Every structure is written in structure tokens, then in C-alpha cells.
Amino acid sequence: MSESTPGPPPGTTVLVLDAEPPAPPPRLGGLTGRARILHADEASLAGRLPLADVLLVWDFTSDAVRRVWPGGGPRPRWVHTASAGVDHLMCPELAASDTVVTNARGVFDQPIAEYVAALVLALAKDLPRTLELQRERSWRHRETRRIAGTRACVVGSGPIGRAVARTLKALGITTALVGRAQRPGVHGGDDLDRLLARADWVVCAAPLTDATRGMFDARRFGVMQPSAHFINIGRGALVVEDDLVAALSKRWIAGAALDVFAREPLAADSPLWTAPGLLVSPHMSGDTVGWRDELGAQFVELYGEWEAGRPLRNVVDKERGYVPGP
Amino acid sequence: MSESTPGPPPGTTVLVLDAEPPAPPPRLGGLTGRARILHADEASLAGRLPLADVLLVWDFTSDAVRRVWPGGGPRPRWVHTASAGVDHLMCPELAASDTVVTNARGVFDQPIAEYVAALVLALAKDLPRTLELQRERSWRHRETRRIAGTRACVVGSGPIGRAVARTLKALGITTALVGRAQRPGVHGGDDLDRLLARADWVVCAAPLTDATRGMFDARRFGVMQPSAHFINIGRGALVVEDDLVAALSKRWIAGAALDVFAREPLAADSPLWTAPGLLVSPHMSGDTVGWRDELGAQFVELYGEWEAGRPLRNVVDKERGYVPGP
């Protein structure tokens, strides 16, 4: 879906909510002479937001936009976030406004699909245990699982979920894709529990919205097979983390891998670090070499559309909380 | 290639060279009433070999056949090994004899292809470091590599090498296959160094023969890119292990994974356990749940062909040391 938006007046101001060092700022050299670039951090965002025609949310780990937006003053007409999810910035006031919100749709699809394949294969082939035994200099042959012919259920039918499904299918895994509503090639939410009950691999690639928050809870882990593995590369709050730890401890499921967490960075005293059969990675599934440059280039490209008064791509449905199909 | 072999006389004796406990014996219930089954271990093989019409080498880690065969007495007319490689049993006397040798061609193709994909993805996505950081409860974001668009060189164009190439291609990796001689879809050995020089992933799936022993040596590691990773799922002696350790230490290549070793099990004091960037696994790449049953069933099936006087499949070219193409 796309939406027509007016082009910028001369002297457009682009405000960048910077990421914390050492993360580099976006490369916006392509906008030289076309826009005034202002920078803000979490502390200065409230003061500078009224000056912005366009806001680039470069620090996609911050929820400063959601906190600051409802305050007084003019608001930018366009907000772009350098992330696939928009849960960190959406608030009722932004949703109700005329401001257009766009996301980084496309940049993360293939990297995340590969990362999920890496996790599925690592779990099937018992790689974590192999590395543990290597540290102990211990030669211990084990039988592992064949993935061809197993079943996956990928929850989330956006471009990331679809790329994950394509990659798992290419590896010979029978893969079902589940979205909000049934459409060709995509199961609706009504089929979810039935598909979870027979999946060897459950992959969560859903957007975080009011409808999906906490959707992976004790009941859903209880539906899964004892041999099933659960993988989350969506958003942490899609999972009730205590329920997952309990499900692993009680052997309701065989293992899991989380790349995202309700609170990031994960606290050093979190029980997730040591939950049995759980692989923890620091929200990096989509971040392959060059990803920041790609995100910057994507914004510059969208800016060109905006500048020319053409319809923007990657426009988020602010009520639903994601860019609708296909 | 297949070869006509005479059927068994009544009262055929099948001798099984058993694996050491706790590895289970083959399930040969399908031969009940059709053959007399004798068992031998390494110590008793010399005494029992003259009694055998057929030898099943169930302990494919043993080189007892190679040692015992040249001794005196009648020899079986058919030897089957429950492995893809035949390097552990071939000797000049067996090669010169009329005895037919068959192998377990087919059983390991898909499992090993998946295992190689697991290693490529684990190395690309820095999973060993992720598991290390998890043990330290340390949240450390890193950028990883995208595998789509990278290049692989798979050395060994038998069914295992071809399955590996198919799987890597399915993951978007540009993959070249190298065999002894050039044929459609397969590069000849003359292209090897050129392909190694531009590969991101070098996978060794070659049979161990006099022509291939030690083929991955200092010179060949020197040809590879500093960013390249080397994976061996063939036989340990294809690699000069000291040269690999040196190449890793000097950063001639970025990393490696070995599933096979010149001496197995790998000694506790081997420098390979701790070589920088080396992932060690205990010769298990092809051994997925049910593999022993599949190996037993495959022998029973071949026995049916032998019994009926039909040509055997999986017949090894004893001079070359593998089952020739396609």
C-alpha cells in the first residue's frame, strides 16, 4: 500500500534521532543541498521535534518518539524508522495524526531468513553441544536430526516471514505460513494452534501489536510437540518469557532460540541466559555487514520520492502497526 | 557402474565385522533362513574370513580388513562396507582379486549436505562466538555475513559432493563442483586452484585415495582468500592437519570446521581442539537418527540382488577407490 504525500517545502529540515555511540550516524551525503540535517539524542528530541519536517528514527532501540510525540508543538509530517518493526515509536497520538510513517521493509528479509536457517540447522545438528564438547576436548559421537521432511510453522506473513518460509522450504522443510487473515499461501490465525501442534520448528516473525503481544504463552508452548523448537526473531514481547523458561524446564518443548527480548540489552541476571536448551543472541539476526549503509541509502531513496511529491513506499498502517501485504 | 556377480550357493555364510559396543549390530532379520550369519571382531577376523562368502564391514572405523586380507586362505566373493568411503579396507590384494566391493552410497548424502549447510551458516553468523558470549552473560551485538551471493567450491563430485552443492545453491551460494575429470556440471582438477582462490567456502567431500591424500596442504591453504572458510566432511587424511593449524594461526584463512581426522578419535592432546577459528566435531556429519537401520536395510536389499544373481549396485572401482559417476 502507498499513500500520496505532499513534497517538502524549500528548506526542509530532517531531524535524525541518533543511535548511541559507537553506532555510526547515517550516511546522508546524498541529501546535501536538499535538506537541512539536524541531530537529536533522547534528551534533546522533545526540544527539536517541533523543528522537523521529517524525522529519521536511526536509533530504533529507543522509545523516545513514543514518549515525546504526545507533547506540545508542531510535529513532522513524515517519520521513517530504520527498522522493520514500528512498535518502539507508535502511540495513539501519532496513529491519529496525519503524519506518514514508513519503515525499512526489505533490508532485513534475506539476512533474517539465513539467520533462522542457521538456528534451525544448529539445533537439528546439536552444534551447541558439539562446541561444549570441543572445549572439554571430548570426542562424543551423537546422532542428530535430519531437517528435510520436518515441518515448520512460521508466524508472521510479512516479507521477513515469507523470506524465512522460502529458505526453510529450500532446505526441504514442509513450511506453513500464518498471518492475521487467511489468503492464498497464508493460513489465518484460526489455523495457528493446529499448525503449532504438529510443527518441529516454530518461528515467530510477527510484528508486535496489541493483538500479538504475549501470543507465545504457556498455553501455546503446551500445544507444541515435546520435540519442537521455538525461534523468535520478531520482537521480545511477543513471548511471555517466564512461560518459555518454564516450558523448557518442564521439557514441554525441546529447545529454543531467542534473538529478541522484552528488555534489551538482556540483563546479566536474566534467567534466560541459562534456561535449558535456550540459545540467546543479542538482536543481530538481520544485521549483516553493510546493513547500516543499506538503511541510510534506503532513507535517501525514500526522501527522493517525498521530495518529488511521489507516493511513498513502505507506508505503515498505523492502526495495524505494520506495512500491509502482500 | 554395476557388475554381474554370481548368486550365492545354498548355505551362504555372511560374516559381519562388528562395531565395538555400545554400537549396535546390524538388523539382519531379513536374512533369516537365507544366510548363515557369523560375527567377528578385529581379533577374530583373520580366523573367520576364510569361512565367509560375503563380508559385511559394519565397523567402518576399523582397518582390520586391510590388514587381514593379504593373509592366507579363501576370501569372500563380495565385501560390503556400511560407509561411503572404502579407504579403510582397500589393499592391493583386495584390489587385484575378483571380489566385488560395494559401499553405502546414498545413505549419507542428504544428512551430510545438511550438516555442511549447518557449518556454513554457523560460521557466517558467528554462532560459536554467540554461544561463548551467552556463557559469559554478555550482550555483544556483531555484524555477520550474508551467505547469498557468496561462492563455494565443493571438492568431490560423488553423490555426497553433489548433494552438498545442491543444498548450498538452494541457499543462494554460487557453487562450483570439482571432480577428478571435467564433465558437464563438474570442473576437472585443473580448475581447482583457480576456484579455491575465489571461494568463500571450500568444502572437501572427496574420497581418500593415493591421488587425494594430503591434497589440502600449506600451498592450497595459501591459495585461498583470507576471508575463506574450509570444511572437511570427507576423510581426515585429505588434509595435512599441521598445515591447517598453521594456516589458521597465521590467518591465511578465516576459519575451518573438521568432522573427520587423520586419527579418530582425536587425541585429547591434539592441537586441533584449540586451533583458532576451528570447529571440531566427532565424525558425525552423516549420522542422523535411524542411520544404522538404513545401513542395515541397504545391505539386506543388496543381498537380495546378490542372492537372485542380479547385478549389484554401488560397486566400487577398486583401482580408483570409489563408485564411479554419475
From TrEMBL, chains A, B:
Pfam families linked to this entry: 2-Hacid_dh_C
Keywords from the UniProt entry: NAD, Oxidoreductase
Domain D-isomer specific 2-hydroxyacid dehydrogenase NAD-binding: 118-285
GO molecular function, one term: oxidoreductase activity
Tree of life domain: Bacteria
InterPro entries listed in its UniProt record: D-isomer_DH_NAD-bd, NAD(P)-bd_dom_sf
Signal peptide feature range: none
Keyword Oxidoreductase part of the UniProt annotation: yes
Annotated CDD domains: 2-Hacid_dh_1
The keyword NAD appears for this protein: yes
PANTHER family to which the protein is assigned, alphabetical: 2-HACID_DH_C DOMAIN-CONTAINING PROTEIN (PTHR43333), D-ISOMER SPECIFIC 2-HYDROXYACID DEHYDROGENASE NAD-BINDING DOMAIN-CONTAINING PROTEIN (PTHR43333:SF1)
Name by which UniProt lists this protein: D-2-hydroxyacid dehydrogenase
